[in-house]
Amino acid sequence: MIRKEKHIVSLLYHNPYLIIEENDLIIEKKTEVFLESVGRADIIFTLEGAIYIVEVKKGTLKTRVVDQVIRYIDVFKADGHKDVRGIIVGKQPPDSSKLTAYLEAKNTYRIKPLFLEHDIPIQCKRCSKCNRINFANAHKCRWCGEVLMKIW
User: CB under 8 Å to 11, separation ≥6 — which residues?
Assistant: First the structure.
């Protein structure tokens, strides 16, 4: 079980397919990137034609995380980058309607929430065929369909 934010950052940095569908187009990846006077982004993935800014929270996602990522996106847009997207990662709020409504109100920014243990496995096992991470209770690999070994 992953207990610290830095471990979640490491998991996503080394396994970007968990959060970015176009992960095969990644040409550069960085962690802990200081962005002028607005803060430090956990991960930045540069793809051909797009930039993804990933902000990870160990706790429950709140609207202030959206504002944080918007500040980061604005830095890149000010530098002339056009396709800048945000991904916020954390625990799902008990009532996610407030977060959803806030994201919809900020729809000029492309920010996607991903929830730990819902979208991203924290208790996980690797597939022996494709070496990708799956939820610990999965019977088949969601990436290649291989039957996963039971962990006793």
Answer: 2, 18, 120, 133
Number of domains in the chain: 2
Q: Are 76 and 57 in contact (CB under 8 A)?
A: no
Confirm if 58 and 8 have CB atoms less than 8 A apart: yes
Q: Report the CATH number that the domain containing residue 42 is assigned in CATH.
A: 3.40.91.50
The residue length of the chain stands at 152
Give the model confidence (pLDDT) of 118-142 as tens digits. Answer: 999 989 999 999 999 999 999 999 9
pLDDT for res 151: 58
Distance CA 71, CA 33 (A): 13
Average pLDDT over residues 29-54: 94
CA 141 to CA 126: how far, in whole Å? 8
Query: DSSP strand E in 67-120: where?
Result: 84-91, 110-115
Contact 55, 69 (CB under 8 A): yes
For 101-121, write each residue's pLDDT tens digit. Answer: 999 999 999 999 999 999 999
Shared domain check, 81 and 42: yes
